[in-house]
Amino acid sequence: MTEFYDERDTMDPEAREAALLAQLSSHVAHAKANAPFYAKRFKDIDPEAITSRAALAELPVTYKSDLVEAQAAHPPFGGLNATPPGAMAHLFRSPGPICEPEGDGHDFWRGARALHACGVRKGDICHNSFSYHLTPGAWLLDSAARALGAAVFPGGVGNTDLQVEAMAHFKANVFCGTPDFLKILLERGREMGADLSSLKKAVVGGGALPPSLRKLIKDEFDVLPLQNYGTADLGIIAYETPAMEGMLLSEGAVVEIVRPGSGDAVAAGEVGEVVVTIFSKDYPLTRFATGDLSAMLPGISPCGRTAPRIKGWMGRADQTAKIRGMFVRPTQMEQIKAAHPEIGKLRLTITSLDHRDQFSIACETASQDPALAGKIAETAKKVLNLAGPVELALAGSLPSDGKVIDDARTYE
Known about the structure:
The protein has about 400 residues and is of the alpha/beta class. The protein folds into 2 domains: about 5-250, Rossmann fold (3-Layer(aba) Sandwich), CATH 3.40.50; about 325-405, ANL, C-terminal domain (GMP Synthetase, Chain A, domain 3, 2-Layer Sandwich), CATH 3.30.300. It has 12 helices and 20 strands. Helix 8 (about 160-170) packs across helix 9 (about 180-190), helix 9 packs parallel to helix 10 and helix 11 crosses helix 12. The radius of gyration is 22 Å and the shape is globular. The mean pLDDT is about 95.
């Protein structure tokens, strides 16, 4: 079994950086010439001058809010796409709402290297429990596994017992999904008496993997979960290896760590917002702000791969949070409030019970009618793509701290 995906895994760091920066000029030129959004944004930019990280840092940052506004004005992708929608492989719509394309190409999301680092190989059987519905979540790892020659069972979310039965029936040896759902499936399999002993590898993301949860899954079920970090817009950004010392940056992307809201680079090792440029001919996102916080790690990974590393996901630069693999944003909370004039103030609180994300929404309303709570819960489910309880509160009872999303989860 080949330890490394290809020669770039062990490429000289200086040579890798030079090769990466050599692509900047042509990337900016392509975006400017073919994506209307960037044609306007880069109107006064000379692509040939963008040959260094310092030059890249002079370009404006593209924020999620820019996507929402641009896509509303110029659907479906706001002019950020350089390939027509009909020439894409898949079209997605995530909460926000924000639409994302998948280009028609091999391993479009750059996930094969990440899965390979986790031990996925040709002939493996991957049980994929990320969501296949509306959003690209599952497709990031589905396409990566197939690029490696592995078979994929598209489990999606929910239907726990059926998924356990399928995992046992097909003798899946790789799991892809959120860490908490992996634990749920393994524990339910034990309760059902299902033979899940074939499962040895797990590629997880979309939720926290605290050391206690990783230890529990490894010690009780002999499965080692390794993390990947990606977004629906950008694909896989970074991934963990068995060394479990930080996350290696994906090839084919320039990652910057900047001071939130400014676009200016932070000092080496300092925590800042992750900003990414991907060399995609179809969707050439440039200096795209993820809203996630992280920091660069010094040195080279003990696994022998030489790509730069980040510490991993270290929180959000705003109130946006992730629940069961789905982003929840303040703008969505405003949508819920706008749909119900009875609401004065509202607040979504996220907690964790037995490593499983939980949330509830408290709404200040004059009426305490349970039927109103039910109607608000129905709206919230449609807006968030998540179901959770709604509690009605008296006017003035919620904190006046400006928060509409309170992430109260604690991880050990």
